[in-house]
Amino acid sequence: MFFGTQTINEKGHLEVGGCDTVELAGNHGTPLYVVDEEALRQRCVEYREAFQDKAPSATVAFATKAFLCKSMARLACEAGLHLDVASLGELRLVAEAGVAMEKVTLHGNYKKDEDLEAALDLGVGLVALDSTDEYRRLSQLAAERGIRQRCILRVSPGIDAHTLDAISTGRNDTKFGITVESGAALTAVEECLSMPGIELIGIHSHIGSQILELEPFQLLAAKLMDLLLSAREKTGWNPELVVLGGGLGIQYEESDNPPELRSLAEAIVDGIEREAAARGLETPRIGIEPGRSIVGELGLTLYEIGPIKTVPSADGNTRTYVSVDGGLSDNPRPVMYGSPYPVILANRAGEEASSEVRISGRHCETDTLVPRALLPAPKSGDLLAVQCTGAYNHTMASNYNFFYRPAVVFVEQGKAREVVRRETQEDLLARDLG
Ligand SMILES: Cc1ncc(COP(=O)(O)O)c(C=O)c1O
Description:
Blueprint: E1 7-8, E2 14-16, E3 19-20, H1 21-28, E4 32-36, H2 37-54, E5 59-63, H3 70-78, E6 82-85, H4 88-96, E7 104-106, H5 113-122, E8 126-129, H6 132-144, E9 149-156, E10 178-179, H7 184-193, E11 198-204, H8 215-235, E12 241-243, H9 261-278, E13 285-288, H10 292-295, E14 299-312, E15 318-324, H11 333-337, E16 343-345, E17 355-360, E18 368-375, E19 383-387, E20 407-412, E21 415-420, H12 425-429
Parallel strand pairs: 4-20, 5-6, 5-13, 6-7, 7-8, 8-9, 9-10, 9-11, 11-12, 12-13, 15-17
Antiparallel strand pairs: 1-2, 2-3, 4-14, 14-15, 14-19, 16-19, 17-18, 20-21
Helix pairs in contact: 2-9, 5-6, 7-8, 8-9
């Protein structure tokens, strides 16, 4: 599978953004995150246009937890997207990148006072309220500053998005948001509307990630409109905004068939319009906040292949373990969720892929990256590209085993720009006070 501008060049090497991946690895080292800048910019614009063509007032916010560095924050904003941040660190980074704060929403299920104070002081556009305790504290902090903070209330609508447990966040049994079914969300709306430091302008729900069907989003539209109807009957409230989170999946495997952006926009916009009209409600402005489906397919990780071992396997055959110079610390998702990833032998991309091998990392864990990869028989020193690592890799990376987190390179039209440098031993030692 090829994504964005990926192709095989005349040397038989994988090329992305007009750059030869073998040269990228030589110039920037491995492991290396490579981001297809042109395709990414285009994807951001396509996302916004798909929604705004259906509903001109719709906003698309990029969920920065999927992938964040200053260059990404600026790229998303230049493409007309807003940003969703989920911590003080993400908030400060986008502020440093020069993003207009009114385009930023602060999320998080446990925002400490310091997070809320920073949001108020920086002037973020929206705070997504996640709990009773939080909105009471925020109201007080805002009122002390003489501010009414624009907010949306995150609710859990009791929807199973048919995805992995750890990334299914819309069920009743979740730590996120306030439950609709029990009536708690309605009570919270009522209370927020009366709070001096809060201007409640809408509701929010994010039901999960890597969702490959449209139906959960349509169901969500109906559930949210039910809540708005109850809220209007009880309080007369006519909210300005409804945010349906992110969650659209990507093609990690041949069999994954994510809906087109225009189909997603149609399902969400028509769904909200239809469900609002059916209840005699005004159609609110629509927001969404995708992460994975913007950047996931447009990043890849380059690794050098090291030791290769063929060992007896449990089924009486043999298995070939191919170790690469990264793994768990730069991509924890296969270990966390058993997530599949497509691979290409980047320096021999044109050769027939007929050997089945297991790709392993180099950590002191059984950090299998790809349990069954089909490659041209790999050799030590070859270059492996693991595709679809644009989302939740750079941002989830760790220093396990004291490995340095990789550099991030943006590539476009034959030019490579290092936007995050590789970590160094000095970076890691700097925090150790002895
Ligand atoms: C509140 C919220 N919005 C948006 C997203 C982005 O989700 P995805 O990357 O699946 O689009 C997440 C992901 O966890 C989230 O928690």
